[in-house]
Design a protein that fits this description.
Elements lengths: L10 H11 L4 E4 L6 E3 H17 L7 E5 L4 H13 L2 E4 L6 H11 L1 E6 L2 E2 L2 E2 H8 L21 E4 L10 E2 H7 L5 H9 L6 E7 L7 E6 H14 L7 E4 L6 H14 L2 E4 L5 H11 L3 E3 L2 H8 L1
Parallel strand pairs: 3-4, 3-5, 4-10, 5-8, 8-9, 12-13, 12-14
Antiparallel strand pairs: 1-2, 6-7, 10-11
Length: 298
Amino acid sequence: MSEFQPMNITVGALLDQVAEKYPDDEAVGYTDRPYRRTWKEFRDECDRVARGLMAIGVKKGDHVAIWATNVPEWLLVLFATAKIGAILVTVNTNYKVFELEYLLRQSDSKVLVMIDAFKQNNYVDVVNTLCPKLKDSVPNQYNDPMLPCLKSVVYAGAGECPPGMYPWSQLYVDAEKTPVEEFQALSASLDPQEVINMQYTSGTTGFPKGVMLTHYNIVNNGKCIGDGMRFSHKDKLCITVPFFHCFGLVLALMASLTHATGIVPIDYFSPKKVMSAIHTERCTAVHGVPTMFIAMLE
């Protein structure tokens, strides 16, 4: 194997490169929802979401938390924040009220993007319990001394947007308030050594700690994995692990981006959904942990 050659590039600039080189190759293809995008289509949508986030007040260095399963909006928030120098704070999909409160306060998150629920965990109820004033607030103007940095809750879930929250679809509309030139200038000013992601992790004792990761860090960790798996733009990776973990975000998404490998996400692990996706999408690779592979064989 040849010597590893690191990439000194931001995540946003790398997405632009891939979109220019393989514009018509499929970047993302879900099997359980109507979401398919080529690299060019996906890049353009990420740019629009980024401009929408700028329109609601997200600036370089701001922290944006994402609380969702492996839905398309998760991917869009990842690359949109990367494009404008905001820091993505990943939230475990199983968090309860006290865990979410700790993370939002400790991370100084300004925006929370969330879906409606996961399994028996109703995210809307959790957030309204944590933020009782939210339902009576004007969207994007939340103000509570208990969570002094939080100003906006963006709803990317099913059904009608709950009171006080900002609907995901509105980002696409408000994007027009941000001039393209302003967005492009901000994106071009970013440095690969700047922090892009904060992941919460802990050992057997103490509270979780926010680990700060740079563009350079996650791009090259992903490239290393992709090189080892010999990925190319002709491959498709079935991602069964959660995006909020480094396995999903770095070893899967960044490994795919660095090699222009197609992404086939599973919103949450299900043996039948995984096997169906691998078969119908003709995936050449799949990520998982031993328990997942055992479940798929049973």
